[in-house]
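Table S2 (continued). Query chain:
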Amino acid sequence: RKTMKIRNENGFTLIELMIVLIIIVTLGAIALPQMDLMFTKNKLRASTTSVTSSLYLSRMKSINEGELYGVQFNFADGTFQIKRDPYGTAEDFGSAYTLDEEISFSDITFISDLAVFNEYGQLDKNCLQTGESTGVIELVNAESDTTMVEVTFISGRIRESNP
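Corresponding output:
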């Protein structure tokens, strides 16, 4: 009498594992460029939010303390700093901020790259070009995506936009 051995086949064959691996690699190759683009756009948004937050803080300090506060932008190295009494002693308030990697200022319409708020929270007219009622800070990333932060003269309104 012959005895039959029953094979217990729990697990996967090498072919099945290779097919699953090929599918995972293919999906990764498709998704990776999109994720990189998403991270680049998030860096641009984060830098824009930092600029906006600095402007809001400067405006709030002007109202609360009844003094001029402003944000000095450095076009060349992508830094910006809140200043107390920006037309006088230009005392630094807090530390300087730096834009995220691969993000830079593409346009700043404020005179001397300085946005100043008065004690009423309004944008100081002396930091705007003659005839202008809005100042703009435009940021750009390596893919040429841009965002803008606009500050209105009379109301001091600060607004982010993605043109």
